């Protein structure tokens, strides 16, 4: 019996084989890769991955689909984690690992932020996402798509928008254009120099009212002396500030308040 896509899980199953082939071509998986697939669904991408790797970890919340994966023809090459990906502990995996998946569009941003916590263990990430989200992820300062997501992810990853995937490549078709993004964590030294909690607060408050000047949004967070030392005028708005400048502000705050 055909599996009915479940709206609560944001299920849209990729069916276009040329898209799958192109994604595998971009990834170039190797037999000994420790690879994790988020949301394998009906196994369209899983099938292609298992032709390349010796073993595959998959995270699937839908118990019916998880059971099919556990008992299907590929069961000996799969480790199935039947769990909500937002509750999954990626640190239990063997590092370093690679991540791939057609992410549920309704929780894509929370998944991306959750994976920030294990960027030190990740080789790369290839994700199918709503194109609008990827446009925001890779956006440059002073553009309409540039925002909190852009800054937070660009500080930790080098990212490339690889190619678009139209709705007709899915069953059922989503109402939006999709796309593939590659995310490669920046080197350990760069990531470790970011005071993560402070950085997140500095960015979140800056974009909390993006049309207001930083003088207003940062009033209780960033002293004017810190902003000026980072080369930022408080008459600027958040969308004008590069990720590296936000990082610099957080680093100066950390040095000024070492406790």
TrEMBL record:
Keywords: Cytoplasm, Methyltransferase, RNA-binding, rRNA processing, S-adenosyl-L-methionine, Transferase
Recorded GO MF terms: 16S rRNA (adenine(1518)-N(6)/adenine(1519)-N(6))-dimethyltransferase activity
Family under the similarity heading: Belongs to the class I-like SAM-binding methyltransferase superfamily. rRNA adenine N(6)-methyltransferase family. RsmA subfamily.
EC nos: 2.1.1.182
Predominant localisation class: cytoplasm
Name used for this protein in its record: Ribosomal RNA small subunit methyltransferase A
Organism: Limnobacter parvus
Binding site for S-adenosyl-L-methionine: 12, 14, 39, 60, 84, 102
Transmembrane regions listed in the UniProt entry: none
Lineage: Bacteria, Pseudomonadati, Pseudomonadota, Betaproteobacteria, Burkholderiales
Catalytically driven reaction(s): adenosine(1518)/adenosine(1519) in 16S rRNA + 4 S-adenosyl-L-methionine = N(6)-dimethyladenosine(1518)/N(6)-dimethyladenosine(1519) in 16S rRNA + 4 S-adenosyl-L-homocysteine + 4 H(+)
Entry keyword annotation includes Transit peptide: no
Occurrences of domain Ribosomal RNA adenine methylase transferase N-terminal (ranges): 19-187
Protein purpose: Specifically dimethylates two adjacent adenosines (A1518 and A1519) in the loop of a conserved hairpin near the 3'-end of 16S rRNA in the 30S particle. May play a critical role in biogenesis of 30S subunits.
Location relative to the cell: Cytoplasm
Pfam families in the cross-refs: RrnaAD
NCBIfam families reported for this sequence: ksgA (TIGR00755)
């Amino acid at each position: 019996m055909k599996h009915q896509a479940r709206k609560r899980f944001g299920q849209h199953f990729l069916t276009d084989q040329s898209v799958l082939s192109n994604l595998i071509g971009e990834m170039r998986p190797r037999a000994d890769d420790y690879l994790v697939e988020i949301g394998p669904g009906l196994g369209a991408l899983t099938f292609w991955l298992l032709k390349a790797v010796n073993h595959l970890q998959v995270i699937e919340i839908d118990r019916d689909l998880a059971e099919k994966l556990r008992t299907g023809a590929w069961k000996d090459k799969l480790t199935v984690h039947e769990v909500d990906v937002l509750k999954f502990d990626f640190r239990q995996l063997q590092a370093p690992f690679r991540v791939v998946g057609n992410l549920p569009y309704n929780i894509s941003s929370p998944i991306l932020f959750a994976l920030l916590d294990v960027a030190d263990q990740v080789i790369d990430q290839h994700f199918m996402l709503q194109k609008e989200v990827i446009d925001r992820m890779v956006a440059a300062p002073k553009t309409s798509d540039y925002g909190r997501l852009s800054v937070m992810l660009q500080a930790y990853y080098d990212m490339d928008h690889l190619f678009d995937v139209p709705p007709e490549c899915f069953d059922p078709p989503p109402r939006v254009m999709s796309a593939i993004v590659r995310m490669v964590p920046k080197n350990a030294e760069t990531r470790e120099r970011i005071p993560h909690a402070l950085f997140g607060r500095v960015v979140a408050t800056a974009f909390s009212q993006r049309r207001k000047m930083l003088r207003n949004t940062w009033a209780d967070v960033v002293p004017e002396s810190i902003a000026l030392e980072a080369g930022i005028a408080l008459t600027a708005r958040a969308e004008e500030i590069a990720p590296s400048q936000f990082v610099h502000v957080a680093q100066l705050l950390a040095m000024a308040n070492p406790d």
